[in-house]
Amino acid sequence: MVRTRWRTVAPFLVVLMSAGALPAVGAAPPEQEELLINGTFDAGSKPWWTNAGMTPDVSTGELCVDVPDVADPWGAIAGQNDLAFRPATEYTLTFTARADREVTIRPVVQPTDGSGGGAYLTRSTTVGTAATTTTYTFVTPDQELPVNNTLQFQLGGAGAYTACLDDISLTGPPYQHVPDTGPAVKVNQAGYLPRGPKAATVVTSATEPQKWSLQSAAGTVLGQGTTTPRGTDPSSGEPVHGLDFSSYTKPARDVRLVVGDASSHPFDIDADIYQDLRSDAMRFFYTNRSGTAIDGAVAGPEYARPAGHVGVAPNQGDRAVPCQEPAPWMDGWTCDYTLDVTGGWYDAGDHGKYVVNGGIATHQLLSAYERTLHAAVVDDGALTDSTLNVPERDNGVPDILDEARWNLEFMLKMQVPEGKPLAGMVHHKVHDVEWTGLPLLPSADPKARALHRPSTAATLNLAAVAATGARLWRDLDPSFADELLDASTTAYAAAGAHPALFAPRADGESGGGPYADSDVEDEFYWAAAELYLTTGSAPYQRDVTDSPLHQAEVFSPDGFYWGSVAALARLDLATVPSRLPDRDRVRRSVVAGADLLVTLQEREAFGQTYTPSDGRYAWGSNSSMLNNQVVIATAFDLTGHKKYARSVLEGLDYLLGRNVLGMSYITGYGTVYAHNQHSRWYAQSLDPALPTPPRGTVAGGPNSSIQDPVSGAWLEGCLPQWCYVDDIRAWAVNEITINWNSSLAWVASFAADLGDGSACRKSGPHKQR
Ligand code: 9MR
């Protein structure tokens, strides 16, 4: 039966709440909301779950199950999880039930993990053959409640029978997510470089400038000044002041900024702030490797795990993966072969491997390395061999290239073999045929895997990344360089022959994301650029200069990402040595792109390098910011101008805690940091035996679209900076991915190369080749 899900939650409620404007108790009756999803079974059976091998049948518009003869009521359950309640609050449960004989069932509402002092509601209900409707009210305990609760219909203990449930409704005031945003003085909690910029943001409704002081751990005043009122910040809705303490340049430990009663989290002033972040952000890729056991001696003991997807049960493995089942959008495409696509990196919190996203991530690691060959301000030796925790350490090859090679070799395996239809094209992705739940180690994934139809985008990604690799391995491993260049030119030609084979949204329903992209002009530009830079050959040069994107504005405030890669072409054309005739113009376009970003950043009260054109934060906004920092950092490499170095460091301040939530989005860095990111195997919040994501993992971050059920329910109406919660279920705001960590790795490496930040004080000579 159809019932509209109704909501009366005030828009921007979350913002009001966090500003301390809690509605006065008794002022108005609390809003009522339907808390269940699909209680009428009009949309199949999800997200209801059953146990005891019961298969839900919704063909009558009810949820019917054949209950087996089990001893305990909880031996056979139909339930729904992810329910959040307010404490000491009344809720109402209504449901209709029938059975094929009279039985007693038990509706129960309780914490999903059994914690919190027992059930909030447990009743025994007699159910007959005619459908009857029952209503119960219950009041939740007056204590802090777990955020994940469950409604269960415990059906066991009554012999075998058939039960049908319908029109299940659980109403009451919606859970209010009130994040603990910590001190009103928002700082980079990891710290500042002694000679770098030092800015903070104070959330305060004061209209006059306020006195601030920088204090040592013992309370000695090290510096002082006054704040600058900046009005209401649109990205957070908060009234804010700016605060600049750049004039303090001495190294210090555990200092705080104090404004009135508010004292910031402690932080350091130290030239080493970004040294570990560079290697931690890069090490993320090793623990995300597929097809190999993760060695605890390399990764840290808690990250040791068996190899995933190598064909050892229960994995079905990536050794001989067939093509996906035919679907109407495939236009008759199928394949008669299987491919060994072992290896590579898992994309994110899932076990999928997607060429377009692997492509940009691999490229950013290669680019972080290539930058050290051409830029003026680099710490020579920081990215050579024996600098990262990877098993290939001490093999004479820079470790970051070893890591990138792990995924590059996987990408090569995704290319359609010679003699087969679409030879030279690249399969878009490989992933499970159905979604799996959390937690789940890669080695425990029991689902079958499938190769998805080749796409022009994936093919051009391989062409671009393999071409980049070909120049970087030319002296280190000439035969690998040859193999890469061969794969790249083959792919580029195949993409030219099939320029419009697009991965559609429809191919992201089951078991993996779509990575849909139907505009590949940018991928053509990128592949042509990398092939030109590697070979210097005239036809590729012509493809670069003939591309409409070559003259276009490719740097937008939204930031480049896996689906929009023209900026990658432009950045490399500007920085990698070549004889490109209009190279000076290309370089100027990067600087102009950076200038716009810096101008926009100056208007942002939290220093973020991100002012999205529609005012809404995108999925993975933290990476959008970091990718904008790549553009700004490249302008620094091209000009040596201090303003760009300052801008990048200020952008990192936002990610490390100078934001309205007072949250460092990088695991292990700062006082309060994200550590419950959405992942099937760094899933400690679901299984204490599992680790959190490793140090140096960046969360996707605030996402105005809050598509997952947890952020969707808790953060409704959020202004951009509030659209985040550090909950493992909140996949739209709190996932981890290789392409987000690759942006972090690139920027962290740039920041580490700045040493004590002297380049932020005095512009250096322009030395880039
Ligand atoms: O990062 C991707 C984002 O840009 C897209 O908007 C979103 C929806 O298509 O998908 C994101 O990618 C996810 C992928 O589809 C599956 N693995 C996890 C990725 C990060 O959430």
TrEMBL record:
GO molecular function annotation: hydrolase activity
Keywords: Carbohydrate metabolism, Cellulose degradation, Glycosidase, Hydrolase, Polysaccharide degradation, Signal
Compositionally biased intervals (Polar residues): 223-235
PROSITE patterns to which the protein is assigned, alphabetical: GH9_3
Signal peptide: 1-23
Catalytic activity, as annotated: Endohydrolysis of (1->4)-beta-D-glucosidic linkages in cellulose, lichenin and cereal beta-D-glucans
Active site (record annotation): 726, 735
Gene3D superfamilies: 1.50.10.10, Galactose-binding domain-like (2.60.120.260), Immunoglobulins (2.60.40.10)
Domain Glycoside hydrolase family, residue spans: 274-747
Domain Cellulase Ig-like: 181-262
Residue segments, region Disordered: 223-245
Listed InterPro entries: 6-hairpin_glycosidase_sf (IPR008928), 6hp_glycosidase-like_sf (IPR012341), Cellulase_Ig-like (IPR004197), CenC_carb-bd (IPR003305), Galactose-bd-like_sf (IPR008979), Glyco_hydro_9 (IPR001701), Glyco_hydro_9_Asp/Glu_AS (IPR033126), Ig-like_fold (IPR013783)
CBM-cenC domain span: 34-144
Coiled coil: none
E.C. numbers: 3.2.1.4
EC class (word): hydrolase
Family of this protein: Belongs to the glycosyl hydrolase 9 (cellulase E) family.
PANTHER family: ENDO-1,4-BETA-GLUCANASE
Name by which UniProt lists this protein: Endoglucanase
High-level lineage: Bacteria, Bacillati, Actinomycetota, Actinomycetes, Micrococcales
